[in-house]
Amino acid sequence: FFIAKWKVNERGKDEMQYTVAWSGSLNVEEGECVSSAICIPLASQKRGWGGHKGWRVYLVVFIFFFFFFFTKNGVLLLAQLLNEDPVLKLKCRTYEIPRHPGVTEQHEELSILYPAALVTIDGFSLFQSLRACRNQVARAAASGNENIQPPPLAYKKWGLQDIDMIVDHASVGIMTLSPFDQMKTASILGGYNATIKSSPPAMSQYITVGVNPFTGFFFALEGSSQPLMSHVALAVASKLTSALFNAASGWLGWKSKHEEEQVQKQKPKVEPATPLAVRFGLPDSRRHGESICLSPCNTLAAVTDDFGRVILLDVARGVAVRMWKGYRDAQVGWIQMVEDIHEREADKGTFSPFGSLQGPCRVAQFLVIYAPRRGILEVWSTQQGPRVGAFNVGKHCRLLYPGYKIMGLNNVTSQGWQPQTYQICLVDPVVGNVKTLNVPFHLALSDKKSERAKDMHLMKKLTVLLKAKDPNPECLETEVKMLLLEIRYPAIRKQGLVNILASKKVPLSSLINIVQALMDNLKSQDPEGVDEGLLQLCENQLKLLQLYISVSKLNSQGLQPETSMTDDGLATLLRLDESEITRIKMLLENYKQENTRTSVHFEDRDTELPVRTFLEFLECEKEAIMVKKMGEEDSVALGSFFFWKCLCGETVAEDMLQTLETAGLRPQELLSLLLSIWLFKEREVLKRPQSVSYLHTMLSLCGMMKGAIDESWDIQSVSPWWQQMRTVCLQAENNGAALLAARVGHAVAASITSSLVEKKFSQPAAVNAGGMTDSWEAVSLDMEHWNLLLKQLDDCLILQTLLYSKLSNPSGPVPYLLEPLSRLSVKKLLEGGRGGIADSVAKWVFKQDLTPSVLTQARQNKRKESSEEDMEVENTSLICETFTELGLERIVELLRLAYERFPCSLESDILHSHCCWEYVVQWNKDPEEGWFLTRAVDHLKCISNAHVQHGISLMMWNTFIVKRLSAATYLIEKVGKVPKDRLCRRDVGMSDTAMTSFIGSCSQLLQTLMEADIGSDEMKAPLLDIEDPWMSVEGPTSIIELALEQKHVHYPLVEHHYLLCTILHGIMKFALKSVKPLLLFDVKGKNAFFKDLTSIQLMPSGDMDPNILSLRQQYLMKVVSAAVQALPQAQKTKPPSEEPPLNISEPAVDWPSLAFDLAQHLQIQEDVIRRHFVCELYNNGLDQLAEEAIFQVHDKEVLAAQLLVLTGQRLAYALLHTQTKEGMELLARLPPTLCTWLKAMDPQDLRNTDVPILTTAKLVNKVIELLPENHGQYSLALHLIEAVEAMSSS
């Protein structure tokens, strides 16, 4: 058994190869040999890569009359004896979708031909039985269980009568006679008195070939014979050796393990056949039929005989319709091709009664005949069609035509099936190849359609010729011309001409010759029969080719360009003074410098536009040539072909424009192409100042072309010609080239308009002073649009230069890969709203990560001359030195220029607001970058107007902060300590480190919001203004406008949230444990959290619960203790000379002072926290800081008592825990009361035991100073002084 697999051949290419899947012996008993075999593919319920995944069974018939079903691995599935005669032929029919409702749906079946009988097995029954047998075999191989019985097998058995010998057969399927045929048959069989049924009966038709009759037609009425049912005996491969015949069932089976008696082989029972007489046939006593092959649509059949003939039968009528001679031992098969409906083309003048030529797909059938004696394979069109193909093959081949596909499909499952079988193939055993046939559908067309088929063949030949690798130009032109002229159909000829013009291989000269030859051929024909569309296409393409040649000649002149222009010449050309020229040159130089640093530039290759591309861009419309709608790249390519040589001075502009105008191109399209190449070649244009002169010349010539500026144009209105140019400059993103183009356009427009005005008012009646004054006022209307555009382009160029600039020595973490800033244009700024300019600068500030001080310094540089105080000059010089180190001088200078051009749009508060918003937006995208939010708060603090600051703060809180802060609060409340990183990422969306920074920034944000709320009562809201050139700006509402619309907040509610943020920040900062922040507030306080800050909420008032006060005091003491512990650690880890990196360091927070402030808001005595602070400082050995902090304590007596204990702990550690000889002697001399007191002290509470005794002596003196004499421990303090003095003296 062979199966197909994809393998790599010797050349390294994939090819289908047939490999042996299984080989071995199949016979059950000795002496058996195979008499017939067939392979049946079966559908599977599973799906594979090519649709449904199927499996195969092999039906093998032995000479002992049994037939067996095997799998591809040689495993026996079932076996049966249906007749005691040898099997002659096996044929199969599978399900096909009916082409239209009139076709009867055919059922699947397997037919087995015997010498005098025909057995048909129902396909559905066979499919179910084989599938059940396969499953049972798998179970038996695994467990040996054979209890499950497959469904019975349904079959019909006919005894064919009135025929001498049968060699082959064909099962046509179920058919229904037409009423006429029904009446004809009834009258022949029953005579004059015959009766017929109202509906024609359904019959199964069978055709046999053999002897007397040569061809016999049998018809079996449906229902005349009940199908025979038989049980299937399972066959397991592992038990083949014990196979015995079962006399009871007639099937091959095996006894169970429990049966010990021996079963003897008995003759199986065979069911009798139902007689079926031949209805009619083709009587030819001398002719012996050899084979019959039914067509795929069951309408025709091909029969071979021993006379070397191939006869074509009409199955429905039972007559021979065609005969082929000279095909002895022929093998036949069929190919059915379906028309591709998308390739169907309506003929000119064809009328369709249905109104549409797109009907159902047509089907063509071709008969394939293999003549082995001649070694030829022929393909014939049926029924009366010609031979459409012939191939020389070997004389020992075998033509395989199964006539079926996949068994087990129905009208539902067959919809998504992709056939994996071949219709027909030729096996060559000599070479070892399997070849398939593919016949184009159009070969079945006849009559006038054959011309179209020939044309399509010529078209394919032309396509192959144009795709050849290295064709000879002369031969290529000759062959292409010959093929094109041979094509008859105009539509196909037109398609061929289009393909020739689009080919890369055909040179320009050959294209002209081919088009000219075709046009001459058309003109030589009868004018009435010539296709006008094709003739017009030839004329148009010839015109475009001539234009291409003319432009190419002009571009190849190679003139020497002029030398560089002087500033005076440029000023005269552009009608500007020298100062203005100097200013423009400076702006362009800055722009060119920053643009060069920003972008990577690849050198342009000056390649000529291919002729096929040129033809794609243009189309002819009557006498004019139109430029098709195309993208920017195509416009640049065509503009470069027309005008770049002119802009470089290598081609005479007058000649080029005259050629284009003569060809029929409109001046508006030429202007668009000229500006597109000018803007695209910005880098080259800025390097060549003389190109401005060439552009001036070309614009002047274009303006004087017919159709550019109408002579009847009213000078009091805007010129459409110049408006087109202004629109292009308005939309251009190459601001340097756009500014130059606008300057040149302004100068040319002024010149042309002046000449038109002088010409219009040159009549004697109009020459007076008043008339000239009126005319110049009218001219200024159009010039006003130019002046406005020039100001806008100047501003846009300065702004774009700023956005191109970068830090030369960046310090700190520059924002990670951010999408590049979009290039600006005047149109974008006009559509960006009032905040569009500030928003663009804010994005640039974020990308460069500039601190607010840089933005402020650029404004101070502007007013530096007015500052006269020495201190300010000193500070300014220090800042300038810092900027020099960071490489900021260039950026500060560009910022200053931008501030001058946009005093309103880039006002300090507006810019800081947009920068703040940009940073917080970027932080929201990546909350891990906590310093984004820190920098946003820094910009927020720089906003001077309280109304703006209040609105931005509130918008930040509502949009980005409150949701995350709420999640963080409830997470810390749930855990009761600093959450782990995993929990922080799950609930808050950031790491634990980022969450600490986030909560600190929230505290600063709320503090800024409270300050802004207070300050807004003392100042007015700002008046938003905009620069004059940008008054027409439209677009979304700016951030500032939204901020000013915000409602005022409820101050106590903001303060309430500020307390919560500060508490959370302390927990996260110092990793405090056993602290739940919401337990520090009562029910009202908890309910007020995370509500709208502008709403009025019930706030805590009156005396607080003592338990809550106790928790608050514990929290504050923990914060103070942690802050004091962090002081020496910070000093050790951070040397004074080392500064934290810019951008990452959090703002320094004085936590002890913050704790004192919190104590006031949390109703805790501030003095308690201050005393605890002093004690913690002494406890950590920071005696000097503690002495300074003592002055802030009010109740010094209590503090002295606390410090006395701490002093005792220090002395106890020095005397008792060190246990030196001197210490023991000193301890013996101390008073017993003091010794007992010292032994009661626990020095383990000391965090710093390495304190000098002299420092401790100062502490004791401080305690004596603070304790009143009437205090109970005053005498103990005096003893401590003596002990300390003794220790210090020793």
From TrEMBL:
One of its GO terms (molecular function) is GTPase activator activity. It comes from Latimeria chalumnae. The gene is RAB3GAP2. Belongs to the Rab3-GAP regulatory subunit family. The chain crosses the membrane at residues 57-82. Coiled coil: none annotated. It comes from the Eukaryota. It is found in: Cytoplasm. Its main location: cytoplasm. One of its GO terms (cellular component) is cytoplasm. Keywords: Cytoplasm, GTPase activation, Membrane, Transmembrane, Transmembrane helix. This is RAB3 GTPase activating non-catalytic protein subunit 2. Residues 669-1268 form the Rab3GAP regulatory subunit C-terminal domain. Residues 3-400 form the Rab3-GAP regulatory subunit N-terminal domain. InterPro entries: Rab3GAP2, RAB3GAP2_C, RAB3GAP_N.
